Amino acid sequence: MRCADHRHWLILVLCVSLLVLSNKGKAMDDSDYFDDKLPTSGKSKCSPQLDKKFTGVRLAGPKQVNLGQHTKIPLCGGYRLANTVISILGARIVDETVIVFVNIKTHQAISFNLIPNKDRVDGPRPELISGDYPELAADKILNHENFMTETYFNIDVFYFKPDFPKLPARYTVYALNRGIKSNVIEIEITK
What we know:
The chain contains four helices and ten strands. The strands form two sheets. Strands 3, 5, 6, 8, 9 and 10 form a six-stranded mixed beta sheet that branches. It has a four-stranded antiparallel beta sheet with strand order 1-7-4-2. The protein starts with a helix and ends with a strand. The chain is an alpha+beta fold.
């Protein structure tokens, strides 16, 4: 290698090192990794990993979303439940999912379910499946069976909650459905 080649290599290494050091401790906007065609169903590149021993619901999302650069807050989730449970609930498993964002500083909770443009309903919705099925009991819904089914959702928060605050904040985020609680992730909204 000639001396000029070494200088270019050294400059490249120094630039990368400075970039890494300047971003140390800062969350980077990784929302580009998440699908931009939202909402969608089915497994995608942003879907959480559901290993064969897992039963329940998991979420995945970007660590940071810059609303000055992006118009969406992506959130991806996946269920892995017994085939019996999925057979009873069908597509309603996703519809009945409640997403909860809790502002870390103010502790204010914002929640919505995954039915877009729905009217407010006071009391139980009659179209929901009742809890009369023993398979849906809290102590049985997470039972592992020989046949397990996975189902996925990939959403834009604004699609389901158009009035979601567009102000900088950090949130803990989780999903709830029939007594099942997902993992908790953290998303920072910046401008």
